[in-house]
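Changelog excerpt

This revision adds worked examples to the README so contributors can see how folded entries look when concatenated. The first example is reproduced verbatim below.
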Amino acid sequence: MDIRDFKVFLEPDSEYGGYVAVCPSIQGCYSQGKTVDEALANIREAIELCLEEMENRGEEVPNPNNVLIGSVVIAK
């Protein structure tokens, strides 16, 4: 079994009343949920579906280790 650790970003969405989840390794792969747990479960499903579709089309599966997470502090 091949295990891949895809990074995801979660952001509160006040209009929706929950969270938006994005997987930066896979273009267009995003989901949402009313809670953090629901958003994470939904983005997991979205990632699995995107990977399955990519494999079916013979596309190269992105390397999840190519995403770096950093922080930029701005002082005003």
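The second example, added in the same revision:
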Amino acid sequence: MCQRLKGHPDTGHIPIIMVTALTATPNKVKGLMYGADEYLVMPVDIRHLQETVGRVLEKLYG
């Protein structure tokens, strides 16, 4: 799904932060390879999530 969203001209600019229970390194590599801007593993601390969202938005929109 991430690859499809990032590959479409109408949605390719939207940041994607994957939040998943999949902890293995190959899963993280695939998620980032398919276009995710960040990959977080559950459970996610709310402060970490807020910081990550802020960083992604700052990087993309200055």
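Reviewer comment on example two: The first strand starts at residue 17 and ends at 20. The first helix runs from residue 2 to 7.
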